[in-house]
Amino acid sequence: MSIWESVKTAWQSIFSNKLRSSLTMLGIVIGVMAVVLLVSIGQGFQQSLTTTFNNMGASALYISSSTDKTITTVRPLTFEDAQALEDKTVAPSISAVSPTLGSRGSVSYGNNNVTIQITGITPAITQIRNYQMEEGRFITDQDTTARNNVVVLGYQAALDLFGSESPIGKSLRVSGSKFQVVGTMQKMGGFGGDSYLLMPLTTMQSKITGGNNVQQIAVKAASPELVDAVIAEITSVIRARHYIRTGGADDFTIQDMRETLNSMQQTMATFSIFLGAVGAISLLVGGIGIMNIMLVSVSERTREVGIRKAIGAKRRDILLQFLIEAAALSLTGGLIGLLLALGGASLMGNISLGTMSLKAEISATIVIIALSVSVGTGLISGTYPAFMAAKLDPIESLRHE
Q1: What is the C-alpha separation between 119 and 165, in angstroms, rounded?
Q2: Are 57 and 400 within 8 A, CB to CB?
Q3: Could you give phi then psi for residue 47, rounded to 5 degrees?
Q4: What percent of the chain has pLDDT over 70?
Q5: Alpha helices in 57-191 (DSSP H)
Q6: pTM of the entire predicted model
Q7: How far apart are CA 221 and CA 262, in angstroms?
Q8: Residues 226, 231, 234, 239: is their CA dihedral positive or negative?
Q9: What are the C-alpha distances in Å from 66 to residues 37, 56, 229, 230?
Q10: What's the mean pLDDT in 294-322?
């Protein structure tokens, strides 16, 4: 018997018991759908994470005040601290410095009102973070010096406040004060989201928060190889400005984006493996279901096997027929599971989790692996029933009722 005839016979057997075949495939359908969706969600999170950190700057460092409760005196970071780091005589490895100050606040335009992240920045932030303009212009040095009431909106903030209307030149209110929109940003995505508003740091300090303190100082190394040198320079400069004695603990922390990214990537890789293992359990259950139903099929078709052997079918023909039938069941279930996973991934793109959207990144590699595993599961599950069928004695099979 040729392989094509074995395939036709396998499909005839499957379609002759539609309900039983459908229930048998259900385990594979759920297993493949779970594997593809769960692993894809893990990859989606990992890609969002990588995008976020790339947008924050590959060789960027972020200085913040220490939150260590054991340090009795913590001096806040100031605008002057940032200016000191711009001095090339004490920090030659630093290429850009930008102090920032942020808080959640109410922003309104007409009848639209949103509560978003409001951040005071200097123009140098564009040398550190990957900000891309959608329309209009960014904050300038002149805006910072004059403390102008101008703002730049993140992609989602502009959409929530203005919809399809262009925000450029329009006035809105930030915490009760009137500001003019001079620019909007391109969609960045990632964990940080796109619902934010930027204004000159000096304007933020004088009209929103008051004082001269800053929340964070963003610093960029002249090259990735100089990041360790930059950390040493920052430590030396800030310790001197905060009058920290030799041996005393730093009252500030330096966040190295490289270490943070590597740590998070390792965590997400482990998470993806865990999600894949959960889906694999569903495939295992589906494989057991296929083995069970194939054993029942062998028992029901004992007389058929005897007749085929009596007219010349060899053991390998019987073996091949049942293996193909098991593989066809699992492949069909795998394709249905894949289609459901694709649909689920499409729906997930519209689900928001705080400042980010839930995304499942389905790659060709995941699809190939999932379908291969589903077929492999069918073949492994069908091997024992196929051997049982191939071993049947033709005379005893013909006597079977």
Answers
A1: 23
A2: no
A3: -70, -40
A4: 78
A5: 79-85, 141-146, 155-162
A6: 0.61
A7: 18
A8: negative
A9: 40, 21, 21, 19
A10: 71
Maximum pairwise Cα distance, the chain:
101
Q: What is the sign of the dihedral through the CA atoms of 298, 300, 303 and 307?
A: negative
Give me the chain's average pLDDT, please: 80
Closest CA to 325 of 392, 260, 378: 378
Give the separation between CA 352 and CA 343, rounded to whole angstroms: 17
pLDDT score of 297 more than 90: no
Give residue 333's pLDDT. Answer: 84
Please state, as a whole number, how many other Cβ atoms lie within 10 Å of the Cβ of residue 322: 27
Report helix, strand or coil for 111: coil
Give residue 181's region: left, alpha or beta (phi > 0; psi -120 to 50).
beta
Q: Which helix (H) or strand (E) holds 149?
A: none
pLDDT band of 82, cuts 50, 70, 90:
very high
- Is 259 strand, coil or helix? helix
- In DSSP notation, 193-256 reads -S-EEEEEHHHHIIIII-SSB-SEEEEEESSGGGHHHHHHHHHHHHHHHTTPPTTPPPSEEEEE
Taking the CB of residue 116, how many other CB atoms lie within 10 A of it? 22
pLDDT above 90 (res 289):
no
Query: In the structure, what pLDDT confidence band is assigned to residue 236 with cuts at 50, 70 and 90?
Result: very high
- The tokens describing 149, both together, are 């009431």
Convert the pLDDT of each residue in 42-51 to its tens digit. 777 766 666 6
| Euclidean distance between CA atoms 344 and 366, whole angstroms | 15
DSSP state of 78: B
* Residue 211 confidence class, pLDDT cut points 50, 70, 90: confident
Joined tokens for residue 230: 């930059």
Residue-by-residue DSSP string for 275-326: HHHHHHHHHHHHHHHHHHHHHHHHHHTHHHHHHHHHTT--HHHHHHHHHHHH
Report which secondary-structure segment, H or E, holds 180. Answer: strand 177-185
Which has the higher per-residue pLDDT, 280 or 170?
170
